[in-house]
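User: My instructor asked us to take a sequence, write out its structure as tokens, and then describe one feature of it. I'm not sure where to start. Here is the sequence I was given:
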Amino acid sequence: FIDYGAEANATVAALEAGEIDANYQTTGDTVTLLDGMGLVKSEVVTASTIVLRTNIGNKPYDDQKVRNALQLAVDNSVVLQLGYNNAGKTAENHHVCQIHPEYYELPAIGRDLAKAKALMTEAGHMDTEFELISYDADYVKNPGDVIAEQCREAGFKIKRTVIPGSSFWNDWTKYPWSTTEWNMRPLGVQVLALAYRTGEAWNESAYANPDFDAKLNGALAIADAAKRKELMKDVESILQASGVLIQPFWRSLYRHTTAKVHGLEKHQTFELHLDKVWKDA
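Assistant: Let's start with the prediction itself. The structure tokens for your sequence are:
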């Protein structure tokens, strides 16, 4: 294992030079680039994602009108297209994926610039500058750039700050508004419990809603996915309406290898099953 850092160019060069046999993951435009180099691609649909979460312990993100205004300024499908090269599926701002067994499909909410401006005006923050923080990995930074530009189209003042990944994670739960990568859990309720339940260590949004907690805890207590699904309508709806997250897409994950490598398939949760891997001489 060799760590070439967050920039893809060093890994691409190593593959071109024959210094390595495979990469850990391929993201964004690099997928097409490595396809064109004749490498073998492994692809898997996942519930891995990025979110732009507000931390409601910081003003003005304690105001739901501000959060909903930012949410309504964004077209998630465009973020997927321009920020992640369409390599995934559009998400719905509630952090439960279509492939999760308890996923409940809610009515689609589209971009609405007029409503976004009206909410922000009502909140008194049309002149406020919002700083959007992310780290320097392309698959996190690029979607953040697209979302920032969409918010500017709504008339909002947006400042972009990009922090090296080596230091970003020191304070990842404290930023007022930032992008975060979340990897897949097998069940939708698992991430919701980690990321949005009151008082949890990884609750980076500082979201605290007793009604949400009660309904989520009820869903967590049901083993049967079909029965758990019946409770997820309210769970997903409450979180979506809260505005604490803009979640543009679910990531498809990719890996590229040379033709000599066999069995090194990309896994939904980044597991490596090396007992199934071999390489031609």
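For the description part of your assignment, you could build on this observation: The first helix runs from residue 8 to 17. Try explaining in your own words what that tells you about the chain.
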